[in-house]
Amino acid sequence: MPSPLIQLDDVHFAWPGQPRLLDIASFTLDRGERVFLKGPSGSGKTTLLGLLGGVLLPGNGSIRVLETDLPSLSASARDRFRADHTGYIFQMFNLLPYLSVVENVTLPCRFSPLRRGRALAHNDSLEQCATGLLAGLGLSDPALLRRSVNELSIGQQQRVAAARALIGSPELVIADEPTSALDADSREAFLRLLFAECERGGSSLLFVSHDSSLEPLFDRALSLGELNRAAPTAEVL
Ligand SMILES: Nc1ncnc2c1ncn2[C@@H]1O[C@H](COP(=O)(O)OP(=O)(O)OP(=O)(O)O)[C@@H](O)[C@H]1O
Ligand SMILES: [Mg+2]
Fold it and tell me: Which residues surround ligand 2, an ion (CB under 5 A)?
């Protein structure tokens, strides 16, 4: 059996001056798995993703991604690790308005020679890789690609954010409620495209959402309230 992609053990986390938010005995995500994580607003989903990305450090516990214990790395080694192995679709997308659509997508390759190398293994240029990913996610109109990201619809921005997370085939793609602004049909269509691109790149997907109707599309669904021993009992139900 290959080791899991993510293995969390006995992780505690509290924001400064606040009571303990997370107390997770164990959480595992296997390579290639597509997992749906749900939980009410404020329950700590984005915080947990920050821990998995090595942006936040736990009070104690072990967070192993690809057999590397993130809390034991230096801050710069954690940044490097994240750039190499994690694609992140942020809740608010975080696209950079002063970069073109294609430059936004290729940005991770500026920070990670590893992902740059992987992107160039099957493409003549990073631009070609970016436009291929965007087309795979349903954004192929050249006129759209010339616009500033601020002039794109929410659904179009979401596709740009997804392509940026996928470029260079990181082992882990984390999506923080990226579909909340879309209608039901668009949400499912986007997910199917996202799955196809994750599969092509061999990326596992951890997808956070309030929208339980998307659950059946995933290999596995988890409720943060059930996982988290620090959750108020009402959240478990
Ligand atoms: N940067 C921060 N500093 C201090 N407290 C924070 C910070 N970010 C989040 N929190 C607190 O931690 C708790 C969990 O927040 P988090 O953003 O993880 O929830 P969430 O489950 O992602 O919610 P949502 O579904 O609304 O996105 C909340 O009580 C929030 O106020
Ligand atoms: Mg959140």
Answer: 45-46
